[in-house]
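We modelled the chain as a single entity of 257 amino acids. Its sequence is:
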Amino acid sequence: MSLKAVLSKFISKRSRIRLVRISEKVKGYFYRKNLNTLAKIFKTDKYGIHFYTPHYQFHLNEFRKRKLKMLEIGVGGYENPEAGGHSLRMWKAFFRRARIYAIDIYDKSPLQESRIKIFKGSQVDVEFMQRVSEEIGEIDIVVDDGSHINSHVIETFNFMFPLLNESGIYFIEDIQTSYWEEKGGTSKDFNNKNSIMGYFKSLVDGLNYQEFEKPGYEPTYFDLNITSIHFYHNLIVIYKGMNNEPSNFMVNNQKPN
């Protein structure tokens, strides 16, 4: 009889889960600097099925030891209250001083543990999201791994990005749905602003708003508060900050005489 079979026979399911969690934490401690390895230890699909953790490592490594607040939209495991939460435990191991928050449309409270808190609700319920943001306070990092419906992703970004700290970073996963009609995307019009990719591509020019040849142009909130946008396969990363570098030529969106 295998060890797994022995454990299944003599130890309750809850005890087995507890033992697995302890094993993950011990292994995670020794590999806490490497997100690829942590993803494997905690069995999150952010590496293997997807290839996000190398990009997360690049963008977040300098924040690893900081005391910060992170919000992940989507916990995983669908309606099973004890399934999912793999990436939350990965983030907890990686960010040793961070508080990790998450939301999900299903009750995932059994997955909560020290430094991990989960709220039940929809990412497009504005009142719910407002309550969550007020309870968390200032947020440093947002990861949208929620419904992946195009309109949901765009609506959530428009609401949550202004609530980020000035130096915050916003991640959007699984943007392949930008091309899927069943999720509100399109493979016919790549510049359609109702699709995830079309919408975020439309924000890129705003990085250079001071160079627009448009006298009297009034920059948008996103013009003024996005400092960079990074596009990867199925992943977008948006940095928040004061986008106020002056033009080296234009004056008030006009060429000097």
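As a brief sanity check on the tokenised model: The longest strand covers residues 164-173. Strands lie at 69-73, 99-104, 116-120, 139-144, 164-173, 226-232, 235-240.
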